[in-house]
């Protein structure tokens, strides 16, 4: 796979090679080597279980990043918006797509049109009302997408529990409306609140068992259930048995983030994205260093605040990506970040002159990525920006 250097925001010209020292800040940085290593790790784990990886591209939102997962051509993917489905089909040739968000009936017509355009778009429902709306839209478009029935495996969000009679009722409503049943789909969202390996393995097994039990219940009732889809980044990495599962969805694994580190899924040096920022002021009497990356660059996500180690708005590293001991983005306004030592730290605030370049590791890769138009890609441990990968936006 060859990267093409495109003109990125802040480039001096189309031909000038930008570096971490010359790129306009704040800017989103992607370490391609770390990303490739993360992809290879999960692929290797799932190969042992003989299941398909259907990555959730809501994290990356980039065809260029998706191609690192599928170097030999488009593969099966998951999306969180219909705009993502349209983008990946149009720009990347991805046609095997699961939309893993409960269907808004008002979007049924748009989904049917995408399907009529040659995309094998599979939707997610858990009510008879959604089935009826999708069936009507499919008839109008002359092409009806298949749909998953969402299964509730841990009470985290939507879906139907495997033993709820509603499961069979929804399948019957789909059949009556002419909506093909793709299978069952679940997501162990409660795994994000865990940090113990045994607890994570237990969550993975509960996720698997719920999906398989629901599929078995549908089959006993006379319905085909070809796909049994599970997945979250924590459970994908801690699953010990995936018997009965046909595919695993995970998204943030491609980049990882501080929340995943706090859960115990990855190490700090696995985090593939960071925000490049510049020191613009100091307040040594307050123990502060000011930078030009506020919440507009980092997002307001404080996902580590309930974990054992609170990383503030992000963990601060030097320009090479090496963390400073206990230095975090303690406060954030729109365009200012205030760096300070973590409460209770015995470390010394580093002396960082005005103009010093730093990199901040994010709490939540999806949220931080969403603040930026694209990725400035680095590789091979070098400071040069080797490529610029645009991100898509919208719903």
Automatic annotation (TrEMBL):
Pfam families: Ala_racemase_N, D-ser_dehydrat. One of its GO terms (biological process) is D-serine catabolic process. Keywords: Lyase. Residues 272-379 form the D-serine dehydratase-like domain. One of its GO terms (molecular function) is D-serine ammonia-lyase activity. It comes from the Bacteria. The keyword Lyase applies. The keyword Lyase applies. Belongs to the DSD1 family. PANTHER family: D-SERINE DEHYDRATASE (PTHR28004:SF2), ZGC:162816-RELATED (PTHR28004). This is DSD1 family PLP-dependent enzyme.
């Amino acid at each position: 796979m060859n990267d093409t250097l495109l003109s990125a925001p802040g480039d001096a010209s189309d031909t000038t090679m930008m570096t971490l020292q010359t790129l306009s800040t704040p800017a989103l940085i992607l370490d391609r080597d770390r990303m490739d290593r993360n992809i290879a790790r999960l692929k290797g784990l799932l190969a042992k279980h003989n299941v398909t990886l259907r990555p959730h591209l809501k994290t990356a939102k980039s065809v260029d990043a998706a191609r690192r997962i599928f170097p030999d051509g488009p593969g099966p993917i998951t999306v969180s918006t219909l705009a993502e489905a349209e983008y990946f089909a149009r720009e990347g040739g991805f046609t095997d797509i699961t939309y893993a968000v409960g269907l808004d009936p008002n979007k049924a017509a748009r989904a049917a049109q995408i399907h009529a355009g040659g995309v094998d778009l599979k939707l997610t429902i858990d009510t008879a009302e959604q089935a009826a709306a999708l069936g009507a839209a499919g008839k109008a478009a002359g092409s009806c997408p298949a749909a998953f029935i969402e299964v509730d495996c841990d009470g985290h969000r939507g879906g139907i529990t495997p033993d709820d009679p509603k499961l069979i009722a929804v399948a019957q409503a789909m059949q009556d409306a002419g909506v093909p049943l793709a299978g069952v789909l679940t997501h162990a969202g409660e795994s994000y609140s865990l940090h113990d390996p045994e607890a994570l393995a237990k969550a993975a097994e509960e996720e698997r068992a719920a999906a398989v039990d629901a599929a078995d219940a549908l089959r006993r009732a006379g319905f085909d259930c070809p796909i049994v889809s599970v997945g979250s980044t924590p459970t994908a990495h801690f699953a010990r048995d995936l018997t009965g599962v046909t595919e695993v969805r995970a998204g943030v694994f491609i980049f990882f983030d501080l929340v995943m580190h706090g859960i115990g899924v990855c190490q700090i040096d696995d985090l593939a994205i960071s925000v490049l920022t510049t020191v613009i002021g100091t307040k040594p009497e307050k123990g502060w260093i000011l930078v030009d990356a506020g919440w507009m660059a980092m997002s307001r996500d404080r996902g580590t605040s309930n974990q054992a180690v609170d990383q503030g708005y992000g963990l601060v590293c030097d320009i090479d990506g090496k963390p400073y001991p206990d230095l975090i983005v303690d406060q954030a306004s729109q365009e200012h970040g205030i760096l300070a030592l973590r409460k209770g730290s015995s470390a010394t605030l580093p002396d960082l002159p005005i103009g010093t370049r730093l990199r901040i590791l994010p709490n939540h890769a999806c949220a931080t990525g969403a603040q930026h138009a694209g990725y400035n890609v680095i590789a091979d441990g070098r400071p040069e920006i080797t490529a610029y990968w645009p991100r898509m936006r919208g719903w």
